[in-house]
Amino acid sequence: MSAELAINAPQVIARKPARKATSESGLVRFVLIGLALSYFALLVLTPLFAVFYEALKKGAEAYFTAITEPDALSSIRLTLMVAAVAVPLNLVFGVAAAWAIAKFEFRGKSLLITLIDLPFSVSPVISGLIYVLVFGLQGWLGPWLQAHDIKVIFALPGIFLATVFVTVPFVARELIPLMQAQGSEEEEAALVLGASGWQTFFRVTLPNIKWGIVYGVILCNARAMGEFGAVAVVSGHIRGLTNTMPLHVEILYNEYQFSAAFAVASLLALLALVTLVIKTLVEWRVKH
Question: Model's pTM, two decimal places?
Fold first, then answer.
């Protein structure tokens, strides 16, 4: 009898369906999904609803008055201008840095990677203070800049520099792993067939990374428009001149103009939602 069981044991084991590592009971799945949705609703949906509710609480007329008054329009223009400067600069740098890191071996490669990641590890406020120490009136270059009537801190150049610094990693960090995974076989084949370096880049490399570029640009643009800490240090909070939308929201809120503050904040929220939709579409396009 025991011998018969021993013979049939492998067959019994073989008939038993294998249990997937990710399979759980319906109750466990329900609890986990419920916790995730509750957490998301508490930290994302509730504040988002509160922003639009407070912005529209006094009616559409008060809302449009708040977002069309001169200081608000100036902050909107400056925010878009900063993004229009920071994103192209970081796009060019990110593509060049990713191409160099992923396709070539050279001295200082690890240093370049570290410098790209530096804005992730440094507080934006600290980066703003660094620019003040370098370009401020009491900074290293302050006396020379003052003698030549060049304004960097508390002016547009300082805002551009601070925003560019905090948004440096996004395009490069999106492209480096993508280009490393693709390897360099196609580029080498193009060079063997007689293509020049620029022809190889535009006809081989660029088509393979175009969706990664789009994704990196979306993230870079979102950070550029929403940056607060570094810009707050170097801007000087001059109304109508150096206030971006996040800074204008802070000033309105500190002056107890809550409806106007939430109205401008709702514009930032709308920009974030548009960015999220575009990001989702790009991810879907890449997946398919």
Answer: 0.83
